[in-house]
Amino acid sequence: PHGLQDVLRELGVEADNAAYCTGRAWGGAPNADRRVINAPADGQRIASVAFATAADYETVAQAAAEAFKTWRLVPAPKRGDIVRQIGNKLREYKEPLGKLVSAEMGKILQEGLGEVQEMIDICDFAVGLSRQLHGFTMHSERPAHRMYDQYQPLGVVGIISAFNFPVAVWSWNAMLAAVCGDVSIWKPSEKTPLTAVAVQHIIKSVLADNDIPEGVFNLIIGDATIGAALAADRRVPLVSATGSTRMGRKVGEVVGARLGRALLELGGNNAIIVTKNADLGIAIRAIVFGAVGTAGQRCTSTRRVIIEDSIFEDVKQRLLAIYPKLPIGHPLQEGTLVGPLIDGAAVAAFTGALAKVQAEGGKLLTGGEVLSGPEYAGGHYVRPALMEVENHYATVQEETFAPILYLIKYIGEVQNAIDLQNDVRQGLSSSIFTLNMREAEAFLAATGSDCGIANVNIGTSGAEIGGAFGGEKETGGGRESGSDAWKVYMRRQTNTINYSTELPLAQGIKFDV
Ligand code: NAD
């Protein structure tokens, strides 16, 4: 159905793919544990994939460590040229790859294609960056001395990714790591390994065309046990992990215990503040896209809307007019805006959260049903829920990775809304809708939003790659993608050079021997 078999053939995702790839060749035990990946849209088998063993991990880790020895010597702009070619190859395969992302993850085709576009964009960004890995120069306090800092390649970067952005998040990390002179080991989500296999095929052809040695871009398929091996591995100086706060706490502890670097991109509990000075037309569109887009399965999905008392009813009625009409269906079907959840466990988390919020006093305004019937057969479809709640409810304080939108009222000053928005443990994305300059600036001030992302008149979800992406508090503190996020992928060094005939000491210290 939907031409998926052709897509799998074109992308080289066949049933006999092995459990790992070190860049040029696939490998793994012939009797590997194989798992079937079913489409969240209809439960149909897409393909099976082999899972790696601990021995496979060792092979991959060694290949990566070996490859780093030579890759770090390739001039950065030349490394950028390889990334440029990867970007061009992704352009060629955008359609089938976008379709596979949509089929395997369940996001609508437009978003699947958007995710591939994000990979292409980060390639372009990384190519430019490959000529701009700048440090500063400083003036020494000593005569005839020069001081500067420089950035050197760091080593093997472990990338653990989540199911909801099965390929884009990897590319944010891997493309920056590559131009920085690092090699990478990618452990995709066990729920979405096929898109990773497809991408690795594309990478592999570029590596072969350029005679790049084994081990520069590695893929290993597996579940949390392989992720845990990466976290514990002293040969991996940086582990970039995207997923739940539960996972991040474990990975952070293990990497921290060996004093490695962990870049954590964890859960959000994102809010949009709507003041009486908002342009409600754009606010409502941003709220709906943020809350139901990707069926509420984005780390930046809008979970809470904090609305000024005098416009609360108006906003609620406008949302109530839209929610029952949302086109829910197969993600590859044209016109669908809301696809399925990833699996049955996600549906159970959705219904469980709705029950708990109601027990806490929350009011279900519309939606919340698990959908059945022939058009939904075999899939994990729900109708997005709209609820009226209070911010302090235990369930509202949690991230439920499903389309539940909580409406919360605020009274008085905009600072009251900001305090509510900050009063959760997560700190990823936030926005305010207002045309009032004082309110907007209050939101961006030191006493404003405490999130890694704070937007004015733009929703919480759908970040551009040019900015640094990530969040505070239980979101983990990591930043990746644009701005100067590249620095975490490099080893920073301060250099002082003396070209005088004396040896003056810093701080004027006298030490005559
Ligand atoms: P998850 O935590 O279940 O899994 C994410 C990845 O971590 C998977 O590859 C998994 O195998 C691995 N993993 C799990 N336990 C591990 C352990 N102990 N050691 C090492 N690896 C381990 O998350 P998910 O369900 O795939 O994704 C949804 C979550 O991801 C949500 O909380 C969402 O907010 C978050 N997310 C955050 C961002 C961000 O950039 N902040 C982006 C996307 C998703």
UniProtKB/TrEMBL annotation:
Domain Aldehyde dehydrogenase: 37-494
EC category: oxidoreductase
InterPro entries: Ald_DH/histidinol_DH, Ald_DH_C, Ald_DH_CS_GLU, Ald_DH_N, Aldehyde_DH_dom, ALDH7A1-like
Enzyme Commission (EC) number: 1.2.1.3
Residues annotated as the enzyme's active site: 265
PROSITE patterns linked: ALDEHYDE_DEHYDR_GLU
Entry's Gene Ontology molecular function annotations: aldehyde dehydrogenase (NAD+) activity
SUPFAM superfamilies tied to this protein: ALDH-like (SSF53720)
Alphabetized UniProt keyword annotations: NAD, Oxidoreductase
Family designation: Belongs to the aldehyde dehydrogenase family.
Subunit: Homotetramer.
Protein name: aldehyde dehydrogenase (NAD(+))
